Amino acid sequence: MTDEPIADTGSEAKRGGHPRHDLAPLLNAPVRLSVVAALAPLDKAEFGFVRDLVEVSDSVLSKQVAALEEAGWVEVRKGRVGRRPRTWLSLTTEGRAVYQRHLAALRAIALG
Question: In this predicted model, what pLDDT tens digit does every residue of 57-79 receive, in sequence order?
Fold first, then answer.
């Protein structure tokens, strides 16, 4: 009998496994990652501001925000400024946590 450790291929390996397991698949799309990154330092942002910052069309941003909203990571609020309709976007608490975990995983992968 040897004292060599036996490789664990079960749940223990996943817990301490490769950082890619902490990546959020929804954030693998560049536009969605860009939207979340744009919202991360802000309490809220106007739709047009995010659209221009991320350099996409209204329809592309709307589709990507809908996916993030469905996941519970972005909150969409509609209102008016004067007579003009406005849409504000903000990260939810869960969205911020997922983004931070995703960034940490990317850093761990990149830095080895």
Answer: 999 999 999 999 999 999 999 99
Name the pTM for this structure: 0.82
Q: What are the contacts of 82-87 at 24+ separation with CB within 8 A?
A: 86/46, 86/47, 87/46, 87/47
* Measured distance CA(36)–CA(89) in Å, rounded: 10
Task: Please give, one letter per residue, the 3-state secondary structure of 68-103.
Answer: HHHCCCEEEEEEEECCEEEEEEEECHHHHHHHHHHH
Q: Which residues contact 13 (CB under 8 A, 6 or more apart)?
A: 7
How many CB atoms within 10 Å of residue 14? 11
